[in-house]
Amino acid sequence: MDDVMSARKKWWSFATERPDFRNLWAAQSISVLGSQISLIAFPLIAISLLDASVSQVGVLAALERAPFLLFGLIAGVLIDRWRPRRVLLIADWVRAVAIGLIPTAALLDVLSIEWLFAIGFVIGVCTVFFDIAYQNVLTGTVVPADLLTANRWLETSRTVGEMSGPGAAAVLLKVVSAPVAIAVDAVSFAVSALFLHAMHATDGPKPERKRETSIWVDLKAGLRFIRQTSFLRWNAIIGATWNLLFQALLAVFFVYLARDLGLSPATVAVVVFVGSLGAVVGVLTMGRINKWLGLGPAIVFSMCVTSAGGLLLATANGSTIWAVVIVGAGFTLINASQPLFNVNVISIRQIITPRHLMGRTTAAIRFLVWGTLPIGALAGGFLGQAFGTKATIIGIGAGYLIPAAMTLVSPFRRIRQISDIEVGGGAAAT
């Protein structure tokens, strides 16, 4: 009992005892909350104000993710040579300005789908650099033994943001217009930057650039480390497949709810809010699940939960209230699986990756895992245009069986704890 109480005390007091981590966590929390408001408002602006087609909504989502394919690898190499916290600050301020252009253009009556395309792409570029640099700053802020706890805090804030963001969007969309809701997101990035400014320097001395090492050589070092590490290889393959399916789902999900089921913007926000409750359950139960199953089997279990949610989505039929309930339940299960997979995989990856390889290894993983995001968004949009959103959702729902099957044949199932993986490029223990 004392051990349990001690673990709970450590969990709840972790951020309060570490000011730099607290500021980093606050910056991420506020940014995620604002981004979730945009998740609802962005496509609704395209649909309601600009009368965008299903394929255009897919293109919009793809452009936000395309930078992971275009700049993902080079960003990691550069971040290993730069000061990661400075990268976070620049990314936050640029996103605040870029997103602020949307309500400005709407107010001046010059907003167009091309505007949204361009701004979405700029936001995507900043997100690439922010997400990669974020892990460098985190590993410089907390000791390796605390990474699992730190990532749980970060995943909790992401989950709460995803849960409360749609609810806040529902209120905003009832009171104000979608462009005003987007303006809230711009403010959130500015506030996030202020918290980052409040951090003490955690980057250490500026990395010395080795004259004999080119960007290409550094890039290959990150890819080589992934190739030599069994855990990272499977992490990339399974994560890429999951993201491909999820982005394809998001490309048609809002159109399906708004047009096929005839839901109002506020009701769409409520459905997403309810679905996001699944992520809260995932965060709250992950500690116990990890203890019962072990880290690897917990990752396998998370993908099985995802496939169950996908199958529920595939069984939804018609435009009745019952169909809305089934879609919401399926979306809830998919969201519940995310924290369990993300926290365990990211924590293990951060611990087994040497600090000097962190940026490029993270970038290479993100390139492989997130590089499928624009492909999935485009595929979902065009499939929805060609075959209808309902048929596309059925196909995606059935497709979620694939990452579940992959985890069952991967080395994940043999990993009970982090010590089962060799640090520095070794394969998972057998």
TrEMBL record:
InterPro entries the record matches: MFS, MFS_trans_sf
Keywords recorded for this protein, A-Z: Cell membrane, Membrane, Transmembrane, Transmembrane helix
Transmembrane feature ranges: 25-50, 57-78, 90-108, 115-134, 234-257, 263-285, 292-314, 320-346, 367-387, 393-412
Membrane topology: Multi-pass membrane protein
Gene3D superfamilies: MFS general substrate transporter like domains
UniProt xrefs under SUPFAM superfamilies: MFS general substrate transporter
UniProt xrefs under PANTHER family: INTEGRAL MEMBRANE EFFLUX PROTEIN-RELATED, MAJOR FACILITATOR SUPERFAMILY ASSOCIATED DOMAIN-CONTAINING PROTEIN
A Pfam family annotated for this UniProt entry: MFS_1
Name listed for the protein in its UniProt record: Major Facilitator Superfamily protein
Subcellular location, principal: membrane
Subcellular location: Cell membrane
Coiled coil: none
Domain of life: Bacteria
